[in-house]
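Weekly puzzle thread! Below is a chain. First person to post its structure in token form gets bragging rights.
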Amino acid sequence: MNTRHTILIVDDDKNTREGLKRALDGTYTVILADSAGKAIPILDERNVDIVLSDIRMSGMDGMTLLQRIMARSNPPIVIMLTAYGTVETAVEAMKLGAYDFLMKPVNLDHLDLLLKRALRSHEVESENLNLRAQLDSRFGLESLIGESAVMHEVFDTIRQAAPTQATILIQGESGTGKELVARAIHQLSTRSKGAFVAVHCAALSPTLLESELFGHEKGAFTGAAERRRGRFELADGGTLFLDEIGEIPTAIQVKLLRVLEERQFERVGGHQTLDVDIRLIAATNADLTAMTKAGTFRNDLYFRLDVVSITLPPLRKRPEDIPLLIAHFLKEFSEKNNKPVEDITPETLAILTAYQWPGNVRELRNVIERMVVLSRSPRLTVRDLPAALRGAAQTESPGTAVNLKGQSGTSPAATMADAERIMIYATLKQHNGNRTLAAEQLGISRRTLQRKLKDYRASEPPTQPSLT
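Winning reply:
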């Protein structure tokens, strides 16, 4: 369906407004506003593609309106109109984000071409943004968020290992994102067009797990009313992800080792040997080395699995990533729940950054979702925090907050002031060092931000966190 584009004409001259409306009405949906002040609520309520605005108007002028429009998250195209144009005015308008600048009286043929070119340019830009979002999703970058040194090491390993056929073992605490890493590896691999099949080993009994992995023949056991293909068959040509592989019983470990060595297996109750072409990615939050020493995990299987090892750090060891994750989850759950929650107070962000997060990224994600759903204002505050986090912040003592170096017992502990510093540096990095934008997001003045940065430089070392 070809939907008409909507144009908002903002001009305090009635003849200009209505003349442009008559010229454009057949091709576009046209809305009129006789002042910039009346244009703002229209932009709040309607989906507008292009704004044609006069510069000289009573009340709010066109340049101020332009600034207000360009401050929006997804601004429309803006074309400025004036009967008193100068080169300086045109340059200023373009710097503020205007697409173009037209002199009055408007040449309608020129305007028609300009509108078509502007819309096509905007469509191409939107297509590029959508493509970039799809690529980010395809490569797992949308969910794998982090600017810390430890996460950059993880990303480098993923990029190097993904195109190969090597078996990969992902280790890390519960909630650190092991399955997200596995999916990213699959999508970056030559098997990306094949299936990604995940099995959560801890959720299945030994009997069910064997059948789930290898399939079974009809009558193989009570309840086996028909032949069933297992996950190895379903993943043929793709990737099989075994989560919590440390929970696999020893008897099934033997069959798994054979599949890894020979790429062959038989269904439960069957005699036909099946060939399979899969890439195996395993994950665990257990210490497999200790389990091999205790005899609960086969040593030969461990070495087969541990060809390429990726260790995901707990969230408490990369606190500089917390503001980035919060911003991502805030956007995700605001859109998902149709709630206009767009910001978080510095005090609230400092508490979240200083918290230890035993449940890691999964816990943080759940907390932000809860806060967004229950929030009554566009800005998350301390009042929106779960009671447990508020209590932890009140009882937090210096020396028990955040370990900045990520090494237990060897580096300075972070107080709330340290958490604030991490937050400020992370926000600056997010805005490529732009102090004005960073100050706006933090809810402080640019002068306050400059003073804090000066204080941080004066106190370095020992606790300046590295964000590079």
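Puzzle host: Confirmed. Bonus trivia for everyone else. The longest strand covers residues 77-82.
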